Amino acid sequence: MAFNDPEDLAKIFNTDVFLEWSKDIASRFWLPLLALYTGCRLEEIASLYCKDVFEHKNFWCIDINDDNDGKVKNENAIRSIPLHPILVDQFKFLQYVERVRSEGHSRVFPELKMVNEKYGHEFSKRFGYYLRKKVGLTNKKKTFHSFRHNVSDHLYKKLVMESLVEELTGRAGKSETRKRYAKGYRVDTIYEECILKLEYQVDLKPLKKSSFVPS
Length: 215
Hints:
The protein has helices at 7-12, 15-22, 26-38, 42-46, 85-90, 93-102, 121-135, 146-157, 162-169, 176-182, 187-193; strands at residues 53-56, 59-64, 79-82. By secondary structure, it is mainly alpha-helical. It has one domain: hpI Integrase, Chain A, CATH 1.10.443. Helix 2 (15-22) packs across helix 3 (26-38), helix 3 packs parallel to helix 8 and helix 9 packs across helix 10 (176-182).
């Protein structure tokens, strides 16, 4: 179930509430924003390495792979995702990653420790608590995974081709034909046809006050 836009998203990203909750923990700030603008599964972004943030044909991307201890659901989930301008230009995610790298860390979110073979295990529980107790969203069908539904639903409403949405989100096609033709879209196509069409009705600019957004 997707979060309601803008009602739920405005509550989740309420400046005072969100910045207080995430003030000391980088993953609490970045993971919801990354999910909202990539459609990634939690574990895909929780396990990111600094090397997985890279430039390709003038697009900054994240690489979802099974290198090191990365976890992917299936072979369709291995993919490169161009980053939204909001993440690159407004929130300066690339500079944040470089800062983490300069501090000697190999992983983007070194504070996340593996539990039950997942880096996102504890975060998932903390985010659930945040939704219920801090934000007031009591519907248990609304979880971190709801960001993924937001991305798909938003793009389908804008009549984006299903195969493109599947390529972005790393899902298998509904048929063998779909599987063959849904794979291998160029990064620039995904960027133009999917990423730039993720325009939510919530103002995130005030979140730039976070200490995790490089000045």
